[in-house]
Design brief:
The protein is α+β, with helices and mostly antiparallel strands and 115 residues long. Helices cover 14% and strands 29% of the residues. The protein is built from two helices and six strands, in the order E-H-E-E-H-E-E-E.
Length: 115
């Protein structure tokens, strides 16, 4: 089965003091990040593009706990156009106060006309 999972939105700002903690909380080396230097880019949380089959890195309760602890702010959203989760998107919204809301939805393709 073919998968097509992408990170659609990523505005989560991560303070530098939580980078090491985030790196250490992944379940196995390289699951989310290969090195401490790959956790953030220009202050934004980044993900390992080689492991998008995991679909939802933030769902790791340890990683989510660190993001809540450091009161990050922003949104992360993943989406899929193929596979068993075709047409779905999911993510998280962080309010900067230690609260997080899960986001989820569906995308429906509609044929509009022939060309």
């Amino acid at each position: 089965m073919s998968w097509s999972i992408v990170n659609l939105v990523n505005t989560v700002e991560v303070p530098s003091k939580c980078v090491r903690e985030l790196f250490d909380k992944q379940e196995y080396d390289g699951q989310i990040w290969y090195s401490k230097d790959s956790v953030v880019c220009n202050g934004k949380l980044v993900f390992n593009p080689d492991h998008l089959e995991h679909m939802d890195y933030v769902n790791n309760k340890n990683v989510l706990g660190v993001l809540k602890k450091y009161k990050v702010k922003g949104e992360i959203c993943f989406g899929s156009l193929e596979g068993d989760n075709k047409g779905s998107f999911w993510g998280y919204s962080f309010d900067g106060k230690g609260n997080v809301k899960k986001l989820e939805g569906k995308i429906q393709w509609i044929e509009s006309r022939n060309f």
